[in-house]
Amino acid sequence: MDRLTKRVDEWTYEPALNDGERPIDKFNDVLHALGRFEDVQEQERLVVLPCKIGERVYKTYNKYNAAICTCCMDMAGLGCECAFWDEEKCTCTNRPDRYGDYGIASVGFDYKHIPEIDKTIFLTHEAAESALKTKSTGGD
């Protein structure tokens, strides 16, 4: 679907017009699109993601309750690079940062991560580290 508007500045939009079109020619299309967005918002189905799908985010984990490879700490389903479950034999280049029994792994953001945002999924490494420090000091 082509955009019906173009951004002028942070708060201002104007109709995206083709040659010879007048703003009034786009009015019904813009009104229809706005109505659809409002319907979805009213139904509480409108979601604004914190980042793009596939963008790198940081997942915290506890090695005792996560299905992870012990060498690269690959979360189950992401595909361990070395296929060894022995740190001595590991050839992985995707080694996470470890903090005792906890660690941080860089993963691609996916829809399945939405419920875990700010719990085990963080947008920055610093935020993930802060969450692990809170866990290690007995915080919630």
Give a written overview of the molecule.
With about 140 residues, this protein is of the alpha+beta class. It has 2 domains: about 40 residues, no CATH class; about 80 residues, no CATH class. About 25% of the residues lie in helices and about 20% in strands. The protein contains 2 helices and 6 strands, in the order ββαββββα. A 4-stranded antiparallel β-sheet has the order 4-5-3-6, covered by helices on one side. It has a two-stranded antiparallel ribbon with strand order 1-2. β4 and β5 form a beta hairpin. The longest helix is centred in the N-terminal third of the chain and has 20 residues. The chain is elongated and about 65 Å long. About 5% of the residues have low confidence.
Describe what is shown at a glance:
The chain has helices at 23-42, 125-136, and strands spanning 5-7, 13-15, 56-62, 97-99, 102-108, 121-122. The chain has 140 residues and is of the alpha+beta class.
- Largest sheet strand order: 4-5-3-6
Helix/strand structural class: alpha+beta
Order of helices and strands: EEHEEEEH
Shape, per Cα inertia axes: elongated
Rg to the nearest angstrom?
A: 22 Å
Number of strands: 6
Low-pLDDT residue intervals, each spanning 5 or more residues: 73-79
Q: Summarize the biggest pleated sheet.
A: 4 strands, antiparallel
Count of domain modules? 2
Helix content: 10-25%
Mean of pLDDT: 77
Distance between the termini: 44 Å
Per DSSP, the total helix count is 2
> What is the beta-strand fraction?
15-25%
